[in-house]
Amino acid sequence: MPPAERKKPSRKWAIALAVLVHLIFAVVLIFGIDWQTKEASPVMAELWSSVSAPATKPVPKPEPAPRLEPKPQPKPVPKPEPKPKPEPKLEQPKPVKADIELKDKEKEKEKEKEKKRKEEEKEKKKAEAEKKLKEQALKVQHAMLEAEQVALDKQREAAEAARQQAATQAASQRLMNDAISRISSHIRRFVVMPPDVVGNPQAEFDVFLIPTGEVLNVKLSRSSGNPAYDTAVERAIRKASPLPLPTDPSLIGRFRELKLKFRPNE
């Protein structure tokens, strides 16, 4: 049977098979890029040239088939290039346990140094304070020693002065006693002893003199118990004027008033 007499359904099947073959071929090409180690197997397609129609029915004149534009074959999908892996950020290495311990030890050392420095400063201040206290104590002790020395010197001077004064007084007293003894002896030469004197009674007189030794007044301060003897002694004092005074000027002032004692048997 001539080609013009083919049935319409058979042509459609042929076109469908052709499209299918092209699609299969395109798929094989696409996957063949990735699977280069495998060769694509050929695809067999069988085309029917004619289909017998029943003889009883007249075959209508086939209408011209619409011209089919060949479908564009799909372009092979390019294999995506592998994206470069981002370089990992370099993280600073975390301190290991040994580094941490080392830092802790360094901190402890720093703390110990600071503590030691503070203790040294404290000890230094304490030593300076003790030194100042010792210096002050030494100054006070030195001042006390000086005061004691001054007091001792004063005591020594006072004792020396007292000794000298005592010695002077003793010497003066000796001179006084000697002078009084001479005066008393001088007066006794003028005493006229009464006949009725019994024993050795003592009569005391206060005698007032002038610097030249002359007697101004005579006063009986204590009687001997024998009025005749008391009168005889008073008369003798007045007759003995002027009395022999010492020649030392320092003693003249002490002979303004004399206490004289007389006994019959002297």
TrEMBL record:
Highest taxon of source: Bacteria
Membrane topology qualifier: Single-pass membrane protein
Keywords linked to the UniProt accession: Membrane, Transmembrane, Transmembrane helix
Transmembrane segments: 12-33
Pfam families: TonB_2
Localisation: Membrane
A Gene Ontology term for the protein's cellular component: membrane
A single GO molecular function term of this UniProt record: toxin transmembrane transporter activity
One record GO biological process: bacteriocin transport
Region feature (Disordered): 51-127
Keyword Transmembrane helix: yes
KW Membrane (keyword) present: yes
Sequence ranges of Basic and acidic residues compositional bias: 64-127
Gene3D superfamilies: 3.30.1150.10
NCBIfam families linked to this entry: tolA_full, tonB_Cterm
Record's protein name: Protein TolA
